[in-house]
Automatic annotation (TrEMBL):
Oligomeric form and interacting partners: Forms a heterodimer with psmg1. Forms a heterodimer with PSMG1. The PSMG1-PSMG2 heterodimer interacts directly with the PSMA5 and PSMA7 proteasome alpha subunits.
Family: Belongs to the PSMG2 family.
GO CC, alphabetical: cytosol; nucleus
Localisation: Nucleus
Name recorded for this polypeptide: Proteasome assembly chaperone 2
Keywords: Chaperone, Nucleus, Phosphoprotein
Record-level GO BP terms: proteasome assembly
Principal subcellular localization: nucleus
Gene3D superfamilies registered for this protein in UniProt: PAC-like subunit (3.40.50.10900)
Length: 261
């Protein structure tokens, strides 16, 4: 359920929705942070669900002392109606055994909101790639059948690589193939649900490992930007400048106390 944050503010029906998977390295969530901060997207509501661990904190995109006191919770919606763009940011893990309920709640909200398309930013364990996934770009995409007809040609023109199917029973039966996204959290479940519900959805993911995943997030958001053109490239042809949120200053905790030395 979308609960408006301010009276009279809602998400336009024909927006593109961007959201992250809660996956390895939190790459999707970090990429969404960059988009919200850089585009200065205003908060328009909250996605209320009992499937996420409860949390509350200060404004992660604070620009001054006054707006730093604004509270943020585990699932919030931001929107830029002029750009027909909406973003759902998730900040806490799904409660164990509630992944199915969470995806069903998301599907219900997506259908009610009539988004033009949904794009899920995700990640997958680099160490669990099969042999033919070890070469070339670390990015992959998936499209639901209802989106494939209008987008597949464009992504192939950008030389994007579709997620490969892998053997369901390695070494026993290599003919039966399936999509596998290890470390991708609810990515595969939501993708399957969107296929069944005929929702126009794309998954864009990066193979990565746990650690300092800021470079992975920057790489993922730059990759998505080649399709969506959220931010223009510089005149020199360099990658666009993404704004680092103020909350990232403590991404790895506080510094070491001087008393230790």
């Amino acid at each position: 359920m979308l609960v408006p944050a301010r009276t009279g503010v809602d998400v336009p029906a024909d927006c593109t929705l961007l959201l992250p998977a809660i996956s390895v390295g939190n790459v999707g969530q970090l990429a969404i942070d960059l988009i919200i901060a850089t585009l200065n997207m205003p908060k328009v509501g909250y996605f209320y669900t009992d499937c996420l661990l409860p949390m509350v904190g200060n404004n992660p995109y604070a620009t001054n002392e006054e707006n730093a006191k604004e509270l943020s919770i585990n699932a919030e919606v931001y929107a830029l109606p002029s750009s027909k763009l909406a973003v759902l940011q998730l900040r806490s893990p799904i409660i164990k055994k509630k992944s199915k309920d969470f995806c069903q709640a998301l599907i219900s909200w997506i259908k009610r909101s009539s988004f033009s398309k949904v794009i899920l930013l995700s990640s997958s364990h680099a160490y669990q790639r099969v042999d033919h996934q070890l070469f070339g770009t670390p990015f992959r995409y998936l499209l639901t059948p209802s989106l494939e007809g209008s987008v597949a040609g464009l992504l192939k023109g950008l030389e994007w690589k579709e997620m490969e199917k892998v053997s369901s029973y390695p070494g026993m039966n290599d003919e039966e193939k399936r999509i596998s996204i290890p470390g991708g959290g609810f990515t595969k479940r939501l993708y399957d649900d969107c296929c069944s519900e005929e929702i126009q959805m794309a998954v864009v993911l990066k193979f990565c490992s746990e650690g300092d995943n800021i470079p992975d997030a920057l790489a993922l958001v730059n990759h998505v930007n080649t399709w969506l053109q959220l931010l223009e490239h510089s005149d020199a042809g360099l990658s666009p400048e993404w704004k680092i949120p103020s909350s990232w200053r403590l991404l790895f905790g506080n510094g070491l106390p001087p008393a230790l030395f």
